[in-house]
Amino acid sequence: MKKFLATSSSVFNALCCGIFGHYYAVTKKVTSHINEYECIHCKKQVTTDVTGNLSALTPELEDINNTLQKVYKKKHQHTPQHAA
């Protein structure tokens, strides 16, 4: 019975996403302009691309986002300025 309920709820969630669209929540802030999102109903993952549109989160894009996040954090670390 549990399997049937899990299957029917996932079908219902997919149906809702198909009719009303996805409801994305931010799962990871990569930079101030790029985020990763996940639909709270069907668990579809997307990210913002170069043009600012949402595109499916592929392993390649996930790798790019991880590298970009490392570079962004390194660049924006607070380093004290030495007075001359």
Keyword list:
84 residues; alpha+beta; 2 helices; disordered N terminus
Description:
- The protein is of the alpha+beta class and 84 residues long.
- Helices cover 43% and strands 21% of the residues.
- It is built from two helices and four strands; from the N terminus they run H-E-E-E-E-H.
- It has a four-stranded antiparallel sheet, with no helix packed on it.
- The N and C termini lie far apart (73 Å).
Topology, element by element:
Layout: H1 2-20, E1 24-29, E2 35-39, E3 45-48, E4 54-56, H2 59-75
Antiparallel strand pairs: 1-2, 2-3, 3-4
Low-confidence stretches: 1-5
User: Alpha-carbon distance between the termini?
Assistant: 73 Å
Report helical residue fraction.
40-55%
Largest sheet: 4 strands, antiparallel
Which structural class matches the secondary elements? alpha+beta
- Estimated share of beta-strand residues: 15-25%
Query: On the 0-100 scale, what is the average pLDDT?
Result: 84
Strand order of the largest sheet: 1-2-3-4
Give the number of DSSP strands: 4
Give the topology string: H per helix, E per strand.
HEEEEH
How many separate helices?
A: 2
Short description:
The protein is of the alpha+beta class.
